[in-house]
């Protein structure tokens, strides 16, 4: 038993993305028309709407459809979570992260990384550090380890910057209070 025509078209669509988006869309439309429950086709269509057209509403529709059709379709989780984090829809991203932790085969190091991103976006740097460290421990190659080192360094830099800005904010009112006292004294 060989691959069906729509499976072949799906493989061709994947091969065309992102280099020939027009042909990719054409093939995906054929696949979805032939099999409207093809999770991979819905996912790739969501990616096109997100990455090529900046139509996040349509992208979300296709990502949700992918999850509805096959909650075990692993690639959708990371893509959907990243989009939600970038759109500052942090509560929604957290819900998808929670769902992803229950999916067999999901790479927990990647989920820890996404959770770290979420906490970084919330400016909860200690929690972000914890999750990036967990993600690093779960890493299985040097490239991953290097990326986690970069994320941890970024958090360290942000903490230092936040501390510096906090000190400046505290210092400004004191100067204003002294200026007001001097102004009152001179009157």
In short:
79% of the residues lie in helices and 0% in strands. The protein is an all-alpha fold and 187 residues long.
What tags apply to this protein structure?
187 residues
How do the helices and strands line up, and which of them pair or pack?
Layout: H1 5-16, H2 21-34, H3 39-51, H4 56-69, H5 75-86, H6 90-100, H7 108-121, H8 125-137, H9 142-186
Helix pairs in contact: 1-2, 2-3, 3-4, 4-5, 5-6, 5-7, 6-7, 7-8, 8-9
Would you mind describing this structure in some detail?
It is a single chain. With 187 residues, this protein is mainly α. Helices cover 79% and strands 0% of the residues. The chain contains nine helices and no strands. The longest helix is centred in the C-terminal third of the chain and has 45 residues. It is elongated. The N and C termini lie far apart (96 Å).
Seen as an oligomer or otherwise, the chain set is single chain
Low-confidence stretches: none
Largest sheet data: none
What is the tally of beta strands? 0
**Average of the residue pLDDT scores:** 92
Query: What sort of overall outline do the alpha carbons produce when their principal axes are compared?
Result: elongated
- The end-to-end span amounts to 96 Å
Structural class: mainly alpha
Radius of gyration: 23 Å
> Which range does the strand content fall in?
under 5%
Q: Helix and strand string, N-terminal first?
A: HHHHHHHHH
Number of helices: 9
- The residue fraction in helices comes out at over 70%
